[in-house]
Write a structure and sequence with these properties.
The complex is a heterodimer of chains A (about 130) and B (about 1050). Chain A has helices spanning about 65-70, 90-95, 110-125, and strands spanning about 15-20, 20-25, 25-30, 30-35, 55-60, 75-80, 85, 105-110. Chain A has about 130 residues and is α+β, with helices and mostly antiparallel strands. With about 1050 residues, chain B is mostly helical. Chain B starts with a helix and ends with a strand. Chain B is built from 53 helices and 1 strand. Classes of the chains: A alpha+beta (about 130), B mainly alpha (about 1050). Chain A: It is a peripheral membrane protein.
Chain lengths: ~130, ~1050
Amino acid sequence: MSYIPGQPVSVVVQRIEIQKLRDGDNLILGFSIGGGIDQDSNQNPFSEDKTDKGIYVTRVSKGGPAEVAGLRIGDKIMQVNGWDMTMVTHDQARKKLTKKNEDVVRLLVTRRSLEDVVRQSMMQQPTH
Amino acid sequence: MQVDLVCRICDAAVSGRSSREERSRSSLPTLTAFNNPNCSHSPADIKAHNFGQTATMEDYDVPSAASILASVKEQEARFERLTRALEDERRNVSLQLERGSLPSDMLAGRTTGMSNQPLAWQQMVMQEQSPSNQTSLAMMQEPQEVVEETVTIEEDPGTPTSHVSVVTSDDGTTRRTETKDHLTNMKVTKMVKTVTTRTVRQVPLGPDGLPLPEGSSPLGSYTDSIDRRYMKNGDRFIMPQATSTLTRSYNNYADSYSDTPDTQFRHYALHDGYGDVTENYGSLSRGVNYRPYRPYMAAGGYRPENSYTLPIRKEDYGHVAQPQVPMGSSTVDLNRSQPERFQPEPYGLEDDRRSLGQDEEEPFDLEPDYSTANRRTLPGRTIREPLRNGPRVRGYEDPIEAELIDERHPYIHGMYPAPLAQPERGSLASLDHMGGRRSPSIDSIRKDPRWRDPDLPEVIAMLGHPIDPVKSNAAAYLQHLCYENDKIKKDVRQLKGIPVLVGLLDHPKSEVHRKACGALRNISFGKDHDNKVAIKNCDGIPALIRLMRKTNDMEVRELITGTLWNLSSYEPLKMVIINHGLQTMTNEVVIPHSGWEHEPNEDSKPRDAEWTTVFKNTSGCLRNVSSDGAEARRRLRECEGLVDALLHALQSAVGKKDMDNKSVENCVCIMRNLSYHVHKEVPGAEKFQDPSALQGPDSSGTQRKKKDDAGCFGGKKAKGRKNGEHDKNYDTLDLPKRTEPTKGFELLYQPEVVRLYLSLLTESQNYNTLEAAAGALQNLSAGQWTWSNYIRATVRKEKGLPILVELLRSDSDKVVRAVAIALRNLSIDRRNKDLIGSYAMRDLVSNLPSGQQRPAKNLEEDTVVAILNTIHEIITDSSENARSLMTAQAIDKLVAINRTSQSARETKAASHVLQTVWSYKELRNALTKDGWNKTHFQPIATGTPKGSKSCKPGYDDTTLPLMEKNQGSRGCGSGDMIPMDEFGPDGYSTINQRDSNSKYKSSDGSSDLQEREPFKNDTNRKHYIRSNRPTVSLVDACDVKPQPVDSWV
């Protein structure tokens, strides 16, 4: 998942669609995010490459909409409703996720295990 | 209060100037900080004032032109009368003056401000005979009138002509002031230079015949420019008048400030110095002034900044106008260069380049010195000096007059900021300046300023001049010249200037030894070690130490320690510094500034360390010398109070959460260096050697493993194994009983220090500090003696492993490297090895380059090799760890390195890891399933035999180069690592050796099965522990740092 800024990234992603839950006035997704280009990426416990300033899922509330939809701790959010999340500030990401007028967010996420699966399958045909 | 404040600002400005001068050669962070506020505020103020004035003038213009003209004329007449009267008076008084009876008065006058001036003051005024001074004289005599006059004049501008003149004068004033300021700034240089010239000419003693042109003095040139300017503006003004006008405009300013005239004036001068004003008016005067002189600059042997000529000043002025910019930028530059130049060696005992920091600050030192010196010197200054010189000087009266003016006339000072420049006082140069200024008419006669800078031999010769101020000025000038100019440094050395400077260190006058020290500091800085050697060869080091003992002056001490720091960067001088200065530096600087007390007072709470420049310099010096091998380490360890004080300072840094500064970095580096090889070098170390390490390699292999196992699970089920018991006991704290508090070098390896280093590792943002703290742990955890056992266990118990693992993600190459090696040493402890294998593997692996693509942080070869060696150590004797290596997807990376790396060392190290992995038969199944086969794990090089025998030399090859490259400096890092591959007495090395032997041997045989049996049995338990662990250890690691932002959505 390490990448060079400015270069296209190819990752294995999963689509996750979360139906927001109405809680009084608030719409909640039931997870928390960390990271962003304005944050200290070194402190991100989930990223493999510590210079990765992407947005990561840091907590998922039990039984919440995110968990139901299959989001997991440590997932890296690549897109929200089509908006790129790999080069945004923390707050920009938060705003994209919490728009009041959207009941559904569609995420593109990637996680290590996804890559592992793909890698495993590719390993089945050793190259030499 | 107000007055005070203004004065201070004034001083600051002056010092800033002079520093600026310096600045051109040196960057002054402090100065910048100090000056900027002043600058920024003062110019603004002034501008506003100017504005106001201009407006006023215009308002009054139309109506009062005629009347103003009249009043001006009248004043001129009055001045003339006054002048005549004064001249008479002066004759009378001059005799008295000669007796030198006035100094105190003069001083008083200067300090208190003219308004208070008693008789003495007036007398001095009287002595002033020069026509140009008329105005000032008049004012002096009738202090109250001054104000009035000012007012009148201000309004005068009404007349078109006079208006012009006024404006001009305004300009002129501003201009002049600025120019003056330049002069002031240049003071150091200028004074020196002038001195030279004069001295040479008038003093027969002068070794150098200065080709000074006929009577053209700096003053002359100065005046010239002024005069010319005036003329340009309105020829109608004769010199004296011009002067008076100037003065008057000054007064105006003063009024607006409504301070005491003195204060105001100074304030004003200050403002002028910072060219906002200049910019406004600048084009006019500047053009006039400096074009004609330009050629001079080119002619000057030195760089333009150095040249004395007015025009140059102007040039400089440009600098002055935006002092912040140049300063700032230079500072920035230095800073920027730091990382590169300072590159801490991976195991960097060597800090040579850090001494750069020193020079960085030079400007500081100089500046403040200067201003302070002036101030300070004043009181002590005796009128006698000038008098004595008088006869030699061509115009006997000149000097005196100059002095008088200086002292008594704030206004003049303002206009010609030089007054603050007092330092010249003794020097003829300043006198000349004054004189020139004072009587422009005279000076204007010699319109041809053909004086020049003194050349280097002349300056060096002046160091031996009988007059102290000349010496100090020459030294200051030398410092200035040497700044960042290796050529000049070399020249000074070849001209035998260094012994003279060293000789001046013992000079009783603080001014002199300070300046000499400043020059030595600049000379000692740089890559040219010959300069350092030259200082040492004339016993400069003992002289510096002597001076350190003698002086209490902080600034001088900064210079001394700075010089020592510079000197300490050269290997051969380190021991000399230790021999002469270690205990002195410790007693005079380290202990007092660290806050440590021999016998702490029970009542008072422990003092905190003060991060002074002196402390920083001294610790930097000690840091450098601490890398000079075993003997140096021994001396430092045994230096009374040193280790105690350093530890105290660090603890206080941790307590105050102030861990990013250079002093802390220096202290940690010293500690790390002193921790190197403690287990071998410390007196009585034999007593603590771990018995298990002393056993033969054959038996110890098994035994050790057992012991470690026990340790690992001791907490859970401590069976009766002896070694396990031992470990377990430690958990309940079974440290050697201490009858008395630990002190001195014993503190280095007490388990208590672990917490200190871990705090630093957690909190510090300074990569060098991080590296050093990790290096200290690495050093302490190396070797086989009781204390390193304790240390390794303590790191675990203090939850240090997650902290270290966390740092594997650091962006800094050297931090990653130091941490990796520390983990390797820590994994001698079996339980540590298991934990590290479980929790660090992923981070270790992620630092490895993968085939096509290096990780985002492009780690150096050394680091990659260190990580590979750490991995190797961790998976040795632990199939479990080898398994986590597999699951961390390391195999493809390792294979890629093994096949494609450009680095032979990386290739070899990776190959060793792969061989080890393959040696675990129980893993082969999984490996094959993943598509790997035996060929992937065999050394690529066909010539490389496999097996332990071949492996060993290979190992040596990979690690040894580290050592060879940089023996002393790297010592602490790889030094500890290397023994393990050699047959060193080190337990570590033995173990490693043994382990690899057995492993490789066993990989083919069946014996290994037995050996590994226990592991397999324990696997479940291990898993259990692991599953618990992560929450504890890893979460801890994260918690240590400020939590990143985390938003619920």
